[in-house]
Design goal:
By secondary structure, this protein is mainly α. The protein is built from 5 helices and no strands.
């Protein structure tokens, strides 16, 4: 009888140890995959942040000059969403961050549709509505890219990119506030937009 009990205990312990070993191996692999994803995605988001800043800075002048017709003309093409790599394990990262990263390209596509529509209703020589629409959306996209990069950096222990001589986030916030005021949004609405992104 005792032999049977010891055998049963041995089988149960063996099963528990096997399960624990599998669990710890899988957990270690998931952590490794999450860090790899962060290392791959953070530079893409940082680069996209710079692209957004370039769009926001585009004042329609070429070397300070208008076109021969006296019009403003965009110098930076409206960019598409950042392209994420295919070799990352999305299920390895935090669900909330994953959702925000995966839905970001859709937000950009929607914003680009609104920008395209603004082009159809604006006119020369300044194309004010179109330039304002681009600034309004691309300040937000830049801030979102920064916030996602920051979230990945903090969660997975990757060093954040530093900016020595200026603060791109403060620049984008000021430009977003100015674009929002031109849309006649109140201070509370502007603060809500910024808090929703950076909150």
């Amino acid at each position: 009888m005792m032999e049977a009990i010891f055998t049963l205990i041995g089988v149960v312990l063996g099963a528990i140890l096997t399960w624990l070993q599998t669990y710890l191996t899988k957990k270690g692999e998931t952590k490794k995959n999450a860090k790899y994803l962060a290392i791959r995605i953070i530079p893409i988001l940082n680069q996209y942040l710079q692209v957004c800043i370039d769009v926001v800075k585009d004042d329609g002048l070429y070397n300070g000059q208008r076109t021969n017709d006296g019009c403003l003309e965009p110098q930076i093409k409206t960019p598409s969403a950042p392209a994420y790599p295919n070799d990352v394990d999305w299920k390895s990262i935090d669900d909330d961050i994953m959702f925000k990263l995966i839905s970001f390209p859709s937000q950009i596509a929607d914003g680009n549709q609104n920008i395209k529509f603004a082009w159809e209703i604006t006119g020369p020589p300044d194309y004010d509505e179109w330039f304002d629409e681009r600034i309004f959306y691309y300040t937000q996209f830049g801030l979102i890219a920064y916030r996602l990069s920051e979230a990945l950096s903090i969660k997975y222990g990757i060093k954040m990119k530093t900016y020595d001589h200026w603060d791109p986030i403060e620049y984008l916030k000021k430009e977003l506030e100015a674009a929002s005021e031109r849309r006649h949004l109140g201070k509370e609405a502007i603060e809500k937009i910024i808090n929703d992104i950076l909150g």
